[in-house]
Amino acid sequence: MKKKLFSLSFLIAAFSVSAQNMTTTTATPAVDQQLYNKWSIELNGGVNKPMRAITPGYSTATLNPFHADLGVRYMFSPKFGVKLDVGYDQFTERDDTPDFESRYVRASVQGVVNIGRALNFETWTNTIGILAHGGFGVSQISTETGPGGQDYMGHGILGLTGQIKLSNRVALTGDLTGIVNGRQNWNFDGMGNTTTGSLDGVLLNASVGLTFYLGKNEKHADWVGEEDRISELEKRVDLVETGLLDTDKDGVADLYDLEPNSITGVAVNTKGQSIDTNQNGVPDELESYLDKTYEKKGNGTATNNTVEELINGGYVNVYFDFNSSKPTNASLSGVDFLVKYLKNNPGKSADIIGYADEIGSSNYNTELSRKRAEAVKKVAVNAGIDASRLNVIANGEDTSVNKSSKEARQIVRRVTFQVK
Fold first, then answer.
1. Which of 30, 73, 340, 388 could share a disulfide with 83, CB 3.0–4.6 Å?
2. DSSP-assigned letters across all residues of 115-161
3. What is the reported pTM?
4. Shortest CA distance to 376 belongs to which of 419, 415, 333?
5. What 3 state SS string does 312-340 have?
């Protein structure tokens, strides 16, 4: 029987690894075609200065408050984008001039050029950038002094925005923008009519503000250089090349294989999963082989009896890193193997036995072995096994290996099982 167990253990161990992949992996996601975030929200405020179309005798301060701007921007690439923004300006008299108060509101659609990326700023800085923006829109001047009412017009807009990156999500900005209005009938003070022709009003805005970057990727297009793009493209090519490999030689590329470590020679479906009709955790072909090759015992099949002997013989284990009570991902298949067996044999229970290596005090290692066994029990309970069927045993240090060998210590940092 030991000879049978030794030969079959390799088959079962191989299945254990593939079973873990069945329960914990999903299909490889499609490659993210967007290498960077593209959306941002811009908010700034500052001062304004009407440069033309002011009624004689009226004047604003050299740096006249108040100006505010709110925009939403979308970048088609790291160099080019578009934004929609709205602006608000308020005009009041300066000292020793007649009183007035008027407001200017606008909405603009603008193209954006990332000068920093176009000039490869990334070769010498990763925190400073410059955007140029320009476009057209509609605007309105309103006042409750003078003639009162509103004046509607179109405008052209052009500006430069300096950027200082504070984080991957926020940038500090400083902006200087010029606006030229067409067919402006009122002066900016609202007290008289313009006399300068078709392109009447000229307004300058100076402001500081913040840009907030939106999206799930690490960087925004504002800060993506050619090296970043080449690196991301290389990763995508590597992912595709790796995904086209067929590691387990089952005829399904790893990119689409939900079970990339299926047992060699065992039939799989179109998703690379071993065919297990009765869902007992053993592939049909392997189960049929066991039942036909080895005698049945009592009322159980050869498969069940052999699996039980493998578990109790110490062939199914869960392993841990040094000083850790968290099972390694690769060895969770051992828990999965036990869970499937207990689900198929509801009358059975199991001891969960924890061990530690000899590094550290005996008392500490005994407690660590208990924590390891408790962690494995929790996984089994979460997988649907009643806690009353699982008994935790802390066996402390395993002194059967050379404690000076790193590899040997890895073997004894484990949890084993005894089903009964």
1. 73
2. HHHHTTGGGT-SSEEEEEEEEEEEEEEEESSTT-EEEEEEEEEEEEE
3. 0.51
4. 415
5. HCCCCCEEECCCCCCECHHHHHHHHHHHH
pLDDT in tens, the chain (420 residues): 444 444 444 444 444 444 444 433 333 333 334 578 999 999 999 999 998 888 888 889 989 989 999 999 999 999 999 999 999 999 999 888 888 889 999 999 999 999 998 898 888 898 999 999 999 999 999 987 766 678 899 999 999 999 999 999 999 999 999 999 988 888 888 887 766 567 778 999 999 999 999 999 989 999 987 666 555 566 666 666 666 666 666 667 766 666 665 555 666 776 667 666 666 556 666 656 555 554 444 444 545 567 787 788 888 889 999 999 999 877 777 888 888 889 888 999 999 999 999 998 999 999 999 999 999 999 999 989 999 999 999 999 998 989 888 888 888 999 999 998
CA 264, distance to chain mean position in Å, is: 35
Q: Which of 209, 166, 199 is nearest to 73 (CA)?
A: 209
